[in-house]
Amino acid sequence: MKQLPHPPQELRSGQVLARFFVRFIILAGFAAFGSIGFGRSLATLLWMSIILCAVVGTMRREPVFRASLNHWDEAVAYAAIFALVNGLGQRVSS
């Protein structure tokens, strides 16, 4: 039986950026309808995205430091946005 060729494992950086922005728009959309408020919902969804990207990066054995973007870079970007949202949320509530 003939096997199907494997799709390319590595995405170009532009594709990874597009994936990141599409995911972020979806997360913001879900956070807008969260019952605990936009900021707390977005922070929770970003935290879950950080964990998901780290797990996928580990499972795919992607190197952490590489010239092209991968799941680890997405996890760092989500962590930076999480820190910003979390910091702004604490600043506003006090």
Q: Which ranges are low-confidence, i.e. pLDDT below 50, for 5 or more consecutive residues? A: none
The averaged pLDDT comes out at 88
Number of strands: 0
Tally of helical segments: 3
Residue fraction in strands: under 5%
Compute the gyration radius: what is it? 16 Å
The string of secondary-structure elements, in order, is HHH
Shape assignment? elongated
Report the end-to-end length measured between terminal Cα atoms: 66 Å
Helix fraction, binned, reads 55-70%
Task: Please outline the major beta sheet.
Answer: none
Could you say which structural class the secondary elements and strand pairing correspond to? mainly alpha
Kindly describe this structure.
The protein is mainly alpha-helical. It is 69% helix and 0% strand. The protein has 3 helices and no strands. Helix 1 packs antiparallel against helix 2 and helix 2 runs antiparallel to helix 3. It starts with 12 loop residues before the first helix and ends with a helix.
